[in-house]
Amino acid sequence: MGVFRVKSVEQSIEDTEAPEHRLRKDLSALDLTVFGIGVIIGTGIFVLTGRVARDLAGPSVALSFVGAGIVCALAALCYAEFASTVPVAGSAYTFAFATLGEFPAWIIGWDLTLELMLAAAVVAVGWSGYLTSLLESAGMSLPTAIAGEGAAFNLPAALIVLVLTGILVAGVKLSSRFNLVVVAIKVTVVLLVIVAGLFFVKGANYTPFIPPAKQTPAVEGLAAPLIQVVFGISPVAFGVMGIFSAAAIVFFAYIGFDVVATAAEETRNPQRDLPIGIIGSLVICTVLYVAVSLVVVGMEPYSRLSEAAPLADAFKAVGQTWAATLISIGALAGLTTVVMILMLGQSRVTFAMSRDNLLPGWFARVHPKFGTPYRITILMGCVVALLAGLVPLSAIAELVNIGTLFAFVIVSIAVVILRRTRPDLPRSFRTPLVPFVPILSVLACLYLMLNLPVETWIRFVVWMILGVVVYAVYGYRHSRVAGREVSAGKTGR
Length: 493
What we know:
Elements: H1 9-15, H2 29-40, H3 43-57, H4 61-85, H5 92-97, H6 102-137, H7 155-169, H8 172-197, H9 226-230, H10 239-250, H11 259-262, H12 270-299, H13 310-317, H14 321-355, H15 374-390, H16 393-421, H17 436-450, H18 454-478, H19 480-492
Helix pairs in contact: 2-8, 2-12, 2-14, 3-10, 3-12, 4-10, 4-12, 4-16, 4-17, 6-7, 6-14, 6-15, 6-16, 6-18, 7-14, 7-15, 8-12, 8-14, 13-14, 14-15, 16-17, 16-18
């Protein structure tokens, strides 16, 4: 079978019972839903809203959130079926291994590693931005050399990553309790933005709701959306095309619901709890996103929205510094949980790959006391801390989006394949209207991918080529599934 050898669902589940690889089952449906909300509400709404409204969509950024939410909803239905049917760590990597084979699984695992690692770094940079804004409100300021987008090394971003790495090593239940408290703070702040902001909304700021299309520096050269370049359209911002370009960027705001699937192996009743956590968190967050974006662009002309801390700065612009301070505190709390859960998801994907020996098996060891994959968690924590300290947010947010959309495409295809190859598997949740919904999900994800900049595609292709090289040099030669096939062949003879 070569590089397309499949790891059966039964074998995937059996591997979770090995003592040295067994994760603790401590999570409930509430924990998963709160995890989802905790990771979804973050940089996308607290940070990216200002940038995409100012540079791409104007007040119609709310429609961009709706469009991105619909794409995520289609993919969420596919994820819910897979996660409840194959409750194993690894998310899309595990799903691909059970349907498409080892090499496609490796590619998607490699992709997820990049996606979640960079996403955590991006959010940590956003966390640092809100910390800087909060300190400035209190009359203090950090040196620009160690904080902010232009810092030589963003020290606050790196430090928060290292602190959260320690919490993740200490256990998933501790992480979920910490997350519950912080999510409560974050949702309260989001509701505050909606309610308090309504008193400062000016109707004139919504006109025109969809600004006329025009050429801007934000879509010049390699920053132009690929679809406009491919079809020979002069790259423009705003207008209808601007809404879709913005949707491809604010899609980052929804990244995280798929992380819920990576915790499948640590869930008490995955068949019931995973669909609730995945779909429930997505619906709640979509409603909050649309409401917040409408309020923020109504409070201040979209052309004057800030990039570092748009929500807090919008309240400062109308003289409500108290609200800006509360928002900064809430954003700090909220972005903290996002970094933590993204790192949790990333460590589980890499853990699953290491357990299959596609990466060194040494990383798949579980801590004897805490029951967490501590080795890979510590390693990835250090890598994310370095990225957060050195790489500006704007350079990597789009790369995270293309990786996530690619994962959604694979999962949507895999649902249809598993329905055909294993109709006998018990499915507590079934994606409706198969294959129509998965096909629609694939097309919608591909369309958003085409709306991402050319430079993002170049970086993505380079990362994929590097992944192929790593697989050829290490993964293919050490594969645990390949070893089982060889052993089975010898036994048969």
